[in-house]
Amino acid sequence: MKTKEQIEALRKELREHNYNYYVLDNPIISDFDFDMKLKALQELEQKYPEFYDPSSPTLRVGGAVTKNFETVVHEHRMYSLDNSYSKEDLEDWEKRIQRILGDVQVEFVCELKYDGASISLTYENGELQRAVTRGDGFQGDLVTTNIKTINSIPLKLKGDYPPKFDIRGEIILTLDGFAKMNQERLDNGEEPYMNPRNTASGSLKLQDSALVAKRPLECLLYSVVGASGLETQFEVLEKTRQWGFKVPPVSKLVKSINEVVQFIAYWDVHRHDLPYETDGVVIKVNNLQQQEELGYTAKAPRWAMAYKFKAEQVSTVLNEITYQVGRTGAITPVANLEPVLLAGTTVKRASLHNADQIAKLDVREGDTVFVEKGGEIIPKIIAVDFTKRSRNSEPTIYISHCPECGTELLRKEGEAQHFCPNDMGCPPQITGRIQHFISRKAMDIEGLGGETVELLFKEGLIANYADLYTLTVAQITPLERMAEKSAENLVNGVAASKNIPFERVLFGLGIRYVGETVAKKLAKAYKNIDALMAASQESLVAVDEIGERIAESVVQFFREEKNRTIIERLKSYGLRFSLSEEQLQNQSDALKGQTFVVSGVFETIGRTELKKLIEDNGGKVASSVSSKTTYLVAGDKMGPSKRSKAENLGVAIISEKEFLAMLA
Ligand code: AMP
Ligand code: ZN
């Protein structure tokens, strides 16, 4: 097969797998096979840049950075929707419609109102041309690069699509995806995001598209503008589904407002079974000809109406505000509520986030408060019912000392949360760190759970994670609920963890901001703990994707004597503190401290391979030439702007041969 055909065949196949996986939720090959095929395509594309295609599935992984998003005018304005709250509102709307259209049959399509950020996508000849946020409805931000990373958005269409049209939809995060993102943040010692909607919306404006690619965003589509040949809204939904878009199947074609009301009643309850958030129903006149006759008011179409679900809100009494201390010492205020039923579950606690939030709401113990459940793991308090506040209520005074150890709390400049600085003496911080250390993604110690850690700590058997390795069966067996068998399991589980690879041990240490991915980067860059412990702030920042904040945290962690002592102990027990032989193969420090930009096509080596060589030998790969660039490795067909920039900045330009010679 000719290369071009081979590339095209791979693209087509990957596109289909993408569609099966992300649109139909029905993959037919394994993730591994998919990744292998994607890699194969990436390599071919790098080797043969002449077959570049802006809608190639390889562009999903992102990488391009946008400093300022360009503002563009919508070819077709993005309108808002009028709201209704009752059956009467809907009947009034129907009357207005009949007055304009006369005595004709009007059908409606009922859809759910997806709660995310609206987007308008322009397709020309079946290819995604641009993606624009709603903005003020007249003009929005051009976010095409970020949008291309969202897997459920087709870059190339299937079937009999019109030559040019705009399609509109909502960018959302599923509740599941959102919860996972937050769990990861908590694992890294970061504050969780507030809700899926704002997080989805914020994602569109991230400068680094590679970060967008990592978020589990989806796009649900609901309307087409500027296309001919379509007759009804219901047909639009069916057709767009055939073209490859993700169009939720819950929409329904109905003949009367009575049926609309039934649809609303059903989904008001069952929306909680959906994997994403909805905040209402959108009812649209089905016939597009009728839509056109009805037209628009100054702000909304006359042919559509939103019905807002009643917010999932209840009021209850706040009995007490308590304060939780996390593993990093961060304090979270919690509202303890008079138990109340909300969205199908009994709610007893709600998050108050931080001191500012308490001050903003002016929430006090004894208040009656409104509680709402969104995508958060725990519900939140949205307001105080001031009509019910008692006369002698006192403003909340935020705690000044740690509720667990009594140490005076601190608050860092620019951070919302207070924290307890007594990291070595504050019980929940101590047990929190050990719990993190044994967790699945870190040391994954079998036979040991969070509660047992607390028990062992309370009994004075452990005070840090190194102590785990000296525990004996004889020590554990006398403890409550610990039979000999479970004691043995525990000790065996601890011993087995000595084989966990370096990067996971590093993650398990619980250095603030060093999550799973960062731990991997650091392990790869420094190869063993001694090198990492000796690393300066500047050296750390020179590692790809390591910023000031992480670097500072790492340096500070290793500067502390107590941490160094614990690491020495862990070493003596035989934990892995360096990359394995296998991981080390072909790695060196030959290019340490040097930053490379790779451009063009090479004769003896693929671009991916070349970049890997740089990284394996301790160098850093950057995407654009700057004063920090040490070398520009120039291949055939290198971009002229890169060359002139390098020349202007005095960056050395080397050939592929010269580069390989550096490693020889
Ligand atoms: P609003 O922001 O309350 O004026 O509501 C209008 C917004 O609802 C639109 O801009 C869309 O982003 C969003 N929306 C969500 N689901 C739908 C849907 N099925 N049909 C139309 N608009 C929807
Ligand atoms: Zn404390």
What would you note in describing this structure?
The chain has 664 residues and is an alpha+beta fold. The protein has six domains: 59 residues, Helix Hairpins (Orthogonal Bundle), CATH 1.10.287.610; 226 residues, 2-Layer Sandwich (D-amino Acid Aminotransferase, Chain A, domain 1), CATH 3.30.470; 76 residues, OB fold (Dihydrolipoamide Acetyltransferase, E2P), CATH 2.40.50; 73 residues, Orthogonal Bundle (DNA polymerase, domain 1), CATH 1.10.150.20; 83 residues, DNA polymerase, domain 1; 69 residues, BRCT domain (Rossmann fold), CATH 3.40.50.10190. 37% of the residues lie in helices and 19% in strands. The two termini are 36 Å apart. The model has no long low-confidence stretch (mean pLDDT 90). Bound molecules: adenosine monophosphate (AMP) and zinc ion. The site of zinc ion (ZN) has 8 residues, from loops.
Keywords:
6 domains; 5-stranded mixed beta sheet; 664 residues; binds zinc ion; 19% strand; Helix Hairpins; 25 helices; binds adenosine monophosphate; D-amino Acid Aminotransferase, Chain A, domain 1; alpha+beta; single chain
Short description:
The chain has 664 residues and is of the alpha+beta class. Helix content is 37%, strand content 19%.
Total beta strands: 22
Radius of gyration over C-alpha positions, nearest whole angstrom: 29 Å
Unreliable parts: none
Task: For the largest sheet, list the strands in their spatial order.
Answer: 2-11-10-3-9
Which architecture of the largest domain per CATH?
Answer: 2-Layer Sandwich
What share of residues are in beta strands?
15-25%
In CATH, the topology of the largest domain is named D-amino Acid Aminotransferase, Chain A, domain 1
What proportion of the residues is helical, as a percent range?
25-40%
* Apparent shape: globular
Q: State the end-to-end distance.
A: 36 Å
Integer average pLDDT:
90
Ions, cofactors, ligands: which are bound?
adenosine monophosphate, zinc ion
The biggest beta sheet is recorded as: 5 strands, mixed
Q: How many independent structural domains?
A: 6
The level-1 CATH class of the largest domain: Alpha Beta
Query: Which structural class matches the secondary elements?
Result: alpha+beta
Number of helices: 25
CATH homology-level superfamily of the largest domain:
DNA ligase/mRNA capping enzyme
